[in-house]
């Protein structure tokens, strides 16, 4: 019987912050006991955070979480991972556009490098690793069905604007984990 994970990913940014653009990404998961857990990261750049980069960063967090879980499971336990996102951009990157981009060397029709190539390539590598342990299903959901992850991101951005970054964070916005703390 496969291990099932259902994750909700969301990212956001505020480009007009006085110290420069800020962004955040979050992944939420509710276990079978209805315990909510979150994993988040702050984005401060470089490159400057955008909403698209924040959404892709949330996808990467979700895939990293699934990969970590697959490494904790017994060797032969398959995984069924479902990642929900309210970003049509991130959804398109992971379900449609990547094939054409790979054929074109990650270049657009105008022969320019695609935006956010670094994050798209990282997400594709992680997805391949997770696929080695099972399946990954991508689901686009309206924002109203992803509001918990959205609220986590908005709370992080509010705290960043107020100058309240987590003390455990290093420069550059690595993962700030709140697993087991009942949410972010």
Automatic annotation (TrEMBL):
InterPro entries, per database record: RNase_H, RNaseH-like_sf, RNaseH_domain, RNaseH_sf
Annotated region described as Disordered, given as residue ranges: 161-184
One Pfam family of this chain: RNase_H
Organism per entry: Imshaugia aleurites
Name under which the protein is recorded: ribonuclease H
Positions with biased composition (Acidic residues): 161-172
Root EC class: hydrolase
Gene3D superfamilies: Ribonuclease H-like superfamily/Ribonuclease H
EC number: 3.1.26.4
Protein family membership: Belongs to the RNase H family.
Keyword list, A-Z: Endonuclease, Hydrolase, Metal-binding, Nuclease
Catalyzed reaction equations: Endonucleolytic cleavage to 5'-phosphomonoester
Biological process according to GO: DNA replication, removal of RNA primer
GO molecular function: metal ion binding; nucleic acid binding; RNA-DNA hybrid ribonuclease activity
Annotated ranges, domain RNase H type-1: 1-162
Superkingdom in the source lineage: Eukaryota
